[in-house]
Amino acid sequence: MRILLLSHGASPFGAERVLLAAGRGLADRGHAVALDFPHDGPAVSMARELPGVAVDITARHRLPRSAFEGLGFLASAPRAVAAARRAVRAAAPDLVWVNSLYNPWAAIGARL
User: Whole-prediction pTM value?
Assistant: First the structure.
């Protein structure tokens, strides 16, 4: 099975660690796994070390950490949805996993 895992960030915190563990476990079971990140960061480097896991960065806006960044996050929604949609089309997965409630643009793009 081809599986695409869409991350909301690239820091090595809880959601990303779960995503990395899921990617490793699925690849170990023979699935074709692709991990997609919105930007570069430590979790991307960790993902690139996983055998049998493809890694891509689709340049989606990172999660906001201030009101000002929140405005940018909202303004980037159309581009982020389109980027996630392109990632899904390119991967042609049987299954898409969006790893967090904080990843709405990826969820919408995957659904489209």
Answer: 0.87
